[in-house]
Amino acid sequence: MSLQTTGIHHITAFAGNPQANVDFYAGILGLRLLKKTINFDAPEVYHLYFGNEAGSPGTIITFFPAPGTPKGRIGGGQVGITSYVVPPGSLDFWQQRLESFDIQVTKTSRFSEQYLQFEDNEGLRLELVEREAGANSTWSYGGISADKAIKGFGGAVLFSVNPQKTMDVLESILGFTKIGEDAEYARYQSVGEIGNIVDVPLAKMGLGIGGAGTVHHIAWRAQDFEQHEDWRNTVQNYGYHTTPIIDRQYFNAIYFREAGGILFEIATDPPGFANDEPAEALGQKLMLPEWYEPERAQIEANLLPIEVRTLTGK
Hints:
Layout: E1 8-15, H1 18-28, E2 32-39, E3 42-51, E4 60-65, E5 78-86, H2 91-100, E6 106-110, E7 113-119, E8 125-130, E9 152-159, H3 163-172, E10 177-181, E11 185-189, E12 197-201, E13 215-222, H4 225-237, E14 246-247, E15 251-257, E16 263-271, H5 296-302
Parallel strand pairs: 1-4, 5-8, 9-12, 13-16
Antiparallel strand pairs: 1-13, 2-3, 3-4, 5-9, 6-7, 7-8, 10-11, 11-12, 14-15, 15-16
GO molecular function: dioxygenase activity
Domain VOC: 7-131, 152-269
Keywords: Dioxygenase, Oxidoreductase
């Protein structure tokens, strides 16, 4: 295996009300709103990015929030659960914080790890897990200190309509290593420190339906632009059709749908989110690619205003 991804680059999901989306991920989870832009294919819809202070790959969750988005159904062909990693000893803090905002939490375990599972305001399934690996956050917001803050992704649980095919892609194309299996899940690990653990339920899942509260795609990390070309060739040589390389302003992307139904992206680590605005000002202004700048006034008029707000639980 010549190419190995270090893990998840980002995860992108659908949502409804944009302000509610910001309130949940910035106000409650304490992530930084990194980028306020638009869906390049549908400029009437926001594209919002949340992550750590720098927007490091492995920390980034993104949303297409649009009022009136139909509710989706989580199922096969999707990321079923998005896992976040927090510092050891912080799960009790997070349980208390989530419950203070009337968010129902459930404790569960997989592969001898304890998880705190909950849903966002749209029903997207999330979980927190404590791990030593990965640097602590340098971003603190809304009463969440850096020693309790989310580090980034722990990984994901992939719901597949063909688990064997999905697991084959993880191993044979992406370079994950299988490190465990029990009666319900197989576990895979990449060489990175965060976003590096992927669990696949062994049972086939009925097909999900895209919409608010579901994941659109999961992106895996490519080190640089040169390696990105190698990734595209590798995926195609394995028999999958890929898109051309697409410039997404903050990374380059290729997409392919693996045989378990999940839309996979491979995204470059560079150039990053300070590509078009200063690092200290990330997320404050609506950023548009140059071809949309002539339409800025109309685009801004069609988008609901949003702001990062400090929220107080019970």
